[in-house]
Design brief:
The chain has two helices and no strands. By secondary structure, the chain is mostly helical.
């Protein structure tokens, strides 16, 4: 019942992930491949952290 009020730690991280991917897409469209690759690498790192948190969350349940 009180799980309803519990904050989801991955929700904020997913928003950051989406924002990074969007910035990377715009960089790629503008021809800035270096920035695109840096943002993509950063988003992949963030995605791995999200998956790790979600997998430990599923184990606890």
């Amino acid at each position: 019942m009180f799980g309803l009020f519990k904050n989801n730690p991955t929700k904020k991280m997913r928003k950051q992930y989406d924002a990074l991917l969007e910035k990377a897409m715009h960089a790629q469209r503008n021809g800035d491949i270096k920035t695109y690759s840096l943002l993509t690498a950063e988003s992949e790192t963030l995605w791995k952290e999200i998956e790790k948190l979600e997998s430990t969350d599923n184990v606890k349940k």
